[in-house]
Amino acid sequence: MTIRAFIAIDLPEFIQQNIAKQTTRLRQIIGEELIRWVPPGNTHLNLKFLGDVPISHLDFLKQSLTQTAKSSSAFDLQIGGLGSFPSSKLPRILWVGIHAPAMLLTLHQNIEVAMDKLGYKKEERPFFPHLTLGRARQNISPTDSVKIRDALQAIQLGNIGTARVNSVHLIKSDLVSRGPEYTNLFSANFKQ
Predict the structure, then answer these.
(1) Does residue 7 carry a pLDDT above 80?
(2) What total number of domains does the chain contain?
């Protein structure tokens, strides 16, 4: 038996609420028919998508994550700004930006190395820390893409806040009809 899982940084509720408040106008301009918006409570910084994980591997994952976390110290993330992947001309994923301190990049690299040792393939794309706001629905038209791009350019999103990071989490993702449901399976705290 397997579960779908990933490793992430959780954000404090006040940051999630600030993101929701400051992106309300963007959501109103674009609407629900073009974008599947991420519920504020599901906002997290994904460090490593593991995919299908055998239940029998969970203890190994927990041990590895604990060791990796022990080599990290707490740090702050500055959150703000808007963008899209893969580009502004083809906005498929809308995101809020993160100013990444060197400690976040080191943490990400250490997690990649640790998970690679357990058989989880390293990510080929460069790490670009972000918080996903929403994903474009299938088969949107070029006109819809322009509407999304124009809305992103019209909204200025400054500094949303600072989040203190002192742990990482192993999270289970269950795909249901209304979107993914997340369950925190394990938290690994950084060294004190």
Answers:
(1) yes
(2) 1
Q: In which domain, by residue range, is 15 found? A: 2-189
In whole angstroms, give the CA distance from residue 137 to residue 187: 32
| Residue found under tokens 């943490």 | 107
pLDDT digits (tens, 9 = 90+) for 128-140: 999 999 999 888 8
Which CATH number does the domain housing residue 126 bear? 3.90.1140.10
